[in-house]
Amino acid sequence: MNNFVFQSPTEFVFGRGTENQCGDLCKAYGATKVMIVIGGGSARKSGLLARVEDSLSKAGIPYCLLEGIKPNPEDTKVYEGIELARKENVDFLLPVGGGSVIDTAKAISAGFNYDGDFWDFYCGKKNVEDYPNVLPVGVVLTIPAAGSEASGNTVITKTEGMFKLSIRTKAILRPKFAIMNPELTMTLPPYQTAAGIVDMMVHTMERYFSPTPGCEATDRLCEAVLISCINEGPKVIANPNDYEARANIMWLGTMAHNGICGVGRVEDWASHHMEHEISAIYGVTHGAGLSVVVPAWMTFVMRKNATKIAQFARRVLGVEGNDDVSVATEGINRLKAFWKSLGMPVTMKELGIDNPDIDALVAKLRINKGDKIGGYISLSMDDCKEIYMISK
User: Fold this and answer.
1) Backbone angles phi, psi at 98, to 5 degrees
2) What average pLDDT does range 308-323 have in this prediction?
3) pTM across the whole model
4) CA nearest 157: which of 166, 148, 149?
C-alpha cells in the first residue's frame, strides 16, 4: 500500500425530508446570498425547487436562479453562471440535481474569483488549487450516480471542439454539505437509474483495478460496494418506490466516489477517459457509455494481466475456477449480463452508434490525454483503438 492523504470534509445530511434543512445549512456555512443551480425543470415540476426556496427564505437568505443545465454540462452555462453570480454578489452556490448541475456549480465556484478563463483549470493551463479563493458549494442531490456530491472533481464539455475534461481536487471543490433524501430519486426513469448504478460501479472499479500490491482493505471496501450495487440495483428497477433500496443505492454512489475506495493505490481511469470522448462527440448518457467501454477494456487488458480481473470475477461475481483467464472471461460475461438486465447497452450498436468514428475518438483522446492512459495497464493509442473496436 502506498502513502496517502484522505480528506473528506463534506457534511452528509441523509434521509426523508432533509431538503427542508438547506436554508439552515447554507446559513451555518456563511451564506448571505445563494445561487441555486438546476437542470431542465424537473426540480421545479416536482415541487423540490419550491421547498428549497422556502427553506432559504425561512433562513433569511436571498437567492437567484441559474437553470437549464444539460446532462453533459457545457462551458456556456458556466460562463453564464459566473456572470450571474458576480452580478448578484453571490457568496454560496446550491446545485439541486445530479452530477451535471453539481459539476457546473463547481466550475462556477472555480471561475468566480479568477481573472482568466475558468477553462484554464480544465485544460491544464492553471491549477485550481493555486487559486483557492473559490465559492463554497452545498448540494441537494436528486440523482445518485456521479458521486460529485462527495468529491472534489468536476467534468465540463467545451462546446468549441467538444472537449470533455475534468478537474480533480483533494478538498477545495468538495461540497460543504450534501443533502441526500432517497425519496427524491423515486421518480427517476429506469434508464437513468440504471445508468447511475453503472456509473457508481465503474467509479469503484477504476480504483479497484490497480497494480499496487498490499491493498486488501481497500480491495474489500470496493468489493462490498460492487456487491451491494449488484444486490440493490435490481430492486430499485423492479420497485422504484423501495425506500431502503433507494437509500442504499444513494449512499453507494457517495462511497464509490468520495475517495475512500482508492486510498493507498494507483488508480486506473482509462475507461472514463475513453468514454468521455464518446459522450462528448455523440452526446450519450455517461453511465451507458461506460457500460459499453468497461467490458471492452477488461477484455483487452485481461490479455496482458488477468490477475485483478479474475479476482473481481471470483470475489464479486462468484466465478469459480483456477485458470485466471477463463475466470476473468466468465466474469466479463456475467458483468455484461448484469448490466443488460438493468437495461444498459454493452456495445456501441446497442448504444445507438452504428458506425462510430473510431479514428476521431482516438485523435480526441490523444489531444486530451497524451499518448498513454491507464494505471492498471498502460495503454497506447493503438491499444485504445483496439478497445474501441472491441466495443462495437
Assistant:
1) -110, -155
2) 98
3) 0.94
4) 166
